[in-house]
Design brief:
Length: 100
């Protein structure tokens, strides 16, 4: 049972780390080529749904990047709340919903 907790925590950390790296690479690409300003919203939203919403939202403010994108500024906090709710529910239940 402890192994499942460790795997889940490593997953959460890995997805959030990937989210920060994704946002940084997108910012660097936009600095080089201005035609890619709105490219990559799908990757950001998918990463947020997979568990990286908090990492994305915090790194957006730290890097001061994509703050004027209304879709991301509204959608990411909503997805972050859903992520936190799922994580808390998973830990409280002891991951019993995975066992058949």
């Amino acid at each position: 049972m402890l192994l499942i907790y460790i795997i889940f925590i490593v997953y959460i950390l890995a997805v959030n780390f990937y989210a920060v790296i994704l946002l940084k690479t997108q910012r660097d690409e936009v600095c080089e080529d201005e035609s890619k300003i709105n490219g990559g919203d799908g990757k950001i939203i998918l990463t947020a749904i997979l568990g990286g919403a908090i990492g994305l939202y915090v790194s957006m403010f730290i890097m001061r990047y994509r703050l004027k994108n209304l879709l991301l500024m509204i959608l990411l906090p909503v997805i972050a709340v859903l992520n936190v709710w799922f994580f808390v529910a998973a830990f409280r239940s002891g991951f019993t919903f995975f066992v058949a």
